[in-house]
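Why does this matter for the project? Reviewers at the last site visit asked to see concrete outputs rather than summary tables. In response, this paragraph embeds two records directly. Each consists of the residue sequence and, immediately after it, the corresponding structure tokens. Nothing has been edited or filtered.
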Amino acid sequence: MNGPGIKTFIWLRLASCKIRAQRDRTSRSGSLPPPDQTHRDAGADGDQSPTKSRDRLQIKRIGTPEPMATNPQPNQEQESQFSIRRLEPADKSKGFIDLLSQLSSCPQISDARFDLRFNEVASLGDDHVICVAEDPVSNRIIATGSVFIEKKFLRGCSKVGHIEDIVVDKEVRGKKLGQKMIRYLSDHAKGLGCYKVILDCELYSRGLNPIAKEPKFKS
């Protein structure tokens, strides 16, 4: 090999060694391309990592939560407009006796007899309570029920509540007003310390749901 050929060979060998050394230093230092450059390259190639794809799928799946409905259901709205209160003397003129006639025989009576019986019941205080529900539009009595407290010697002089005469006007049945009346009377009895409440009525014949099967009632 002549002189120029030897010089060219040596120069190529040196260049090859420099390139190999530079590669070794890069490999040892663990340097990688800048993150921004990596994301840009991936976006340019239209390639996305599996993690980012899963995140996007989860976002689409969860989405924006739907607002919760705040409007009450029809039955709840109809039930809430009827409040329950104790019987008053003026309720006779609001159809109280007519409502009782949908339950059993209840002929019309004079105002004097009504007031006399009302005062007798009122004299018993919380031990005998008659409640009614009044339609705020027509001012008619549309539901009624009563509870009286039986005082016993059993169970250490305990008390038992008896719910009777539950009736809902036939024009407004199906709005759970009877159940609301029973709950009201039951809470009254329990508030007086009754260890049980007995529901004394025939539910089907009075337009009520068969809730006497609930554990808190005995029929």
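We now turn to the second protein, recorded in exactly the same manner.
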Amino acid sequence: MTSITDAALPYFSPEKTSLSLSYSAESGSRPVDAVIFAGVSLVLGTACRQLFNGTRVPYTVVLLVIGIVLGSLEYGTNHNLGKMGHGIRIWNDINPGLLLAVFLPALLFESSFSMDVHQIKRCLGQMVLLAGPGVLISTFWIGSLLKCVVLPAAHFSI
């Protein structure tokens, strides 16, 4: 008779993952650091949204710059950001599929909820033109450019 611990489990045990072992053993970080980083990021995002609301600077660009600065400070200064740095490193090693599955529905909902229906009705023809034939034409020209200029010796068969 096999015990429950010997059976194959459909998930990974937190004690056996390389992520938890590498962070807890080497640097003393904990999963709480990832939550702290996420909370600080939400506060920074909210503050940027409020500060740059009436300006011509898109707040997404400001968030990009803040992310680049925080990442550069963490990876360029021998890990001097403390718990924030540990959180950055934990979030850096997250599975991209999981990140997409968790955040994409919320982002799509927010974007669709804040859409202006009248603006979409006015621009529907242009959107369909760019989404259909525009993508096909762009794909053809980029593929032709790659085949003729960048990779002339490569042989492609369709």
